[in-house]
Amino acid sequence: MLLHGDLPLAWAGPAAAPAGLAVAGVVYARGWRRYRRRVPERFAAPQLAAFLSGLACLCVAIASPLDEAADTKLSAHMMQHILLLTVAPALLLLGDPLLPLLRGLPDSLRRSLVAPLLRWRSLRDAAHALAHPLAALFLSSVIFWSWHVPVLYQLALRVPAIHVVEHVSFVAGGLLFWYPVVQPWPSRPEWPSGAMIPYLLAADVQNTLLAALLTFSDRVIYPFYEFHSRAAEAAALDDQVLAGVIMWVPMSLAYLVPAALLTIRLLSPAKPPSGRTAGLVLSRTRSP
After folding, report:
1. Is 132 helix (H, G, I), strand (E, B) or coil?
2. Which residues contact 50 (CB under 8 A, 6 or more apart)?
3. How many helices (H) and strands (E) does the chain have?
4. Which end of the chain is more exposed for a tag (fewer CB within 10 A), N or C?
């Protein structure tokens, strides 16, 4: 069987991915340090730790033995998807990366390339539309379900370029999904915090449906893992059940825990609900 790691483009992954993530970490840390001096109450150690942890999760997902294991085990692939879709994007956004990433760029690059783009009204309008909760939920759902369709899923395993597109789209979909929930500073929420509860529950319902499909199916959904033998088919089916359980529990907790925290905040008499509490999902304080 030809795995995506055996193909010509595979050499680029192990070197390019960590290098790119390291550059992102340096750029963010540089910008964070500058804002730390100006607004220390806003940019503290937790923001830096969250963003760097998000980068570390991406590195584990795409540049560690987990990526190789994902070629042969569906359960490993589901763990990889959890990191790319939920854990890494949420941590990156908890680092309030919007301004530090811009400020961390070299001044010449920021002025010659980034500043003109930010002044482009059509681009700002498009970004605003994508960040709307309805658009974010819809697009992230399309990404989630599309790549789990057997034809596309197995194609990504065989073709390295498509596998890269899959990973990039997972991270992009995760960032879109978590943006309305985390609401990184200095953005403003589109919906009140209470609306984020059904938003998170809708995502959990989708995740539960796919997890149940993997757990209770009596056949191997992705024949790529069968290796064309009865023994391998039985092993692949067992691994598929494990993959379903992995999706069902950790990934559901990623949605249900923030929903529970939001519910507690809304029901707490000491902290009445407000639109700005959407960004407080993971127990951090924000200024107006």
Report:
1. coil
2. 91, 92, 94, 95
3. 15, 0
4. C
Q: What is the pLDDT of residues 140-173, one digit of tens each?
A: 999 999 999 999 999 998 898 999 999 999 999 9
**Do residues 286 and 280 lie in contact, with contact meaning Cβ atoms separated by under 8 Å?**
yes
Q: How far apart are CA 14 and CA 187, in angstroms?
A: 34
Half-sphere exposure of 69 (CA within 13 A, CB side): 15
Distances (CA, A) of 196 to 62, 188, 191: 30, 14, 8
Q: Check if the beta carbon of residue 262 is closer than 8 Å to that of residue 197.
A: yes
Q: What is the pLDDT of residues 34-64, one digit of tens each?
A: 989 888 888 889 999 999 999 999 999 998 8
Q: How many CB atoms lie within 10 A of CB 194?
A: 17
Cis peptide before 133 (omega within 30 of 0): no
Q: What is the pTM of this model?
A: 0.83
Alpha helical stretches, state H, 63-87: 65-69, 74-82
Region of residue 184 (phi > 0: left; psi between -120 and 50: alpha; otherwise: beta): beta
- Structure confidence at residue 242 (pLDDT): 94
- Cα–Cα distance for residue pair 185/286, rounded to 1 Å: 8
Asked if 180 and 131 count as a contact pair (C-beta separation under 8 A), the reply is yes
pLDDT, tens only, 224-244: 876 644 547 788 889 999 999
